[in-house]
Design brief:
The protein has strands at residues 30-33, 56-61, 69-73, 78-81, 86-88. By secondary structure, the chain is mainly beta.
């Protein structure tokens, strides 16, 4: 039986895509918004969507909040997300 690394385990939700990075996000990490759970607006620039390929930087991490990661987008907007919404680049 093949043993898988944690980063190779398939998620039961989210369409079965492979996990790319399971380590926690840190301040200063560059990210893209990939889930579309919050719609697509200038402050939620879906990667490759109608606003293009906008990257952001993690500027704040809150404890105990469902939207615990603050991202400042390169298009001069910012918003809060959870880890499932974002992908590190």
């Amino acid at each position: 039986m093949k043993k898988y690394k944690y980063s190779e385990v398939r998620r039961p939700f989210g369409g079965g895509e492979m996990l790319k990075d399971t380590s926690p996000l840190r301040l200063g990490d560059r990210v893209k918004y990939v889930s579309n759970n919050h719609g697509e607006r200038p402050d939620n620039p879906l990667w490759g969507g109608k606003f293009g390929k906008v990257l952001g930087t993690v500027y704040k991490i809150w404890d105990g909040s469902s939207l615990s990661i603050g991202v400042s987008w390169d298009n001069d907007h910012h918003n809060g997300y959870n880890k499932m919404d974002l992908e590190r680049v």
